[in-house]
Amino acid sequence: MLQNRIFRAIRLSVVKLLLITCNVLTGQILNSGSSPYTILEFVGEGRFGKVAKCLKKSTMDTVAVKIIKKDAFFIRDTEKELAMLKMVSDLNPDHANIIKFFERFEYMGHTCLVFEMLDCHLFDLLIGRNWEPMSLSEIRSVAKQLLVALDALKRLGILHTDIKPDNIMCVNKQDCPLRVKLIDFGLAQVVSSVHPGMKIQPKGYRAPEAALGLPFTEAIDVWSVGCVLVEPSGFFFGALACDESFKVTLTDSLIFSLRFFFV
């Protein structure tokens, strides 16, 4: 009897550890209400958990599954992201250049979000080009797609607030390298809920009005797009533009200068 209780206690502890650490493995099958998903490989990992490239067994389509750690902090953020995704789902994701969201399900206590499988981040595309600057026509193509995405979000009253190369993905870098989509709505905000002084946007892509604690609008996302587009242009000596400390120093210097116009 004692051995059985010890065994059950150990088993429960192991299960809890798996839930917390998001310990899922390649080849494992994730069961949702609509279809089993087989994990083919992991393509990303962060504080929130992991992103897996999966095969949807019912259709044999390849999808991306974001597997969230069982943690109150990440669960709260996931619920916010889901609320944004539901709002965005009213858009045509291909026309709006926004990642396609399919479904949410629970697996071993983890929240799993299923998205279309995209190819690589814009940052990875630049690395693949050995930091060779993009031509003006290439930058114009990417800019148009991102601004179409922002226009669609503006109509819904949504601020993305986290636009950076890691959140812009190429759909298929081999066949159509400059076809991009905006991803990751984990930090998105409804316009009516924001206020001056909020800590918002990543450094290096933060609009001056947000950094100065002034009232801001959807225009802060346009500033971030501008910062992103400078990087592949080679304007700041190629790879130097993608150095985080360089971008932060440059932005801080600009904001310091702008302070004199608001005193």
TrEMBL record:
Domain of life: Eukaryota
This protein's record includes keyword Secreted: no
Pfam family, any one: Pkinase
Protein name: Protein kinase domain-containing protein
Residues covered by the Protein kinase domain: 37-263
SMART domains in the record: S_TKc
Keyword set, alphabetical order: ATP-binding, Kinase, Nucleotide-binding, Serine/threonine-protein kinase, Signal, Transferase
UniProt-listed PANTHER family: DUAL SPECIFICITY PROTEIN KINASE (PTHR24058), HOMEODOMAIN-INTERACTING PROTEIN KINASE 2 (PTHR24058:SF53)
Binding of ATP, residues: 70
Family stated for the protein in its record: Belongs to the protein kinase superfamily.
Signal peptide: 1-27
A GO term for molecular function: transcription coactivator activity
GO cellular component, one term: cytoplasm
A biological-process GO annotation: smoothened signaling pathway
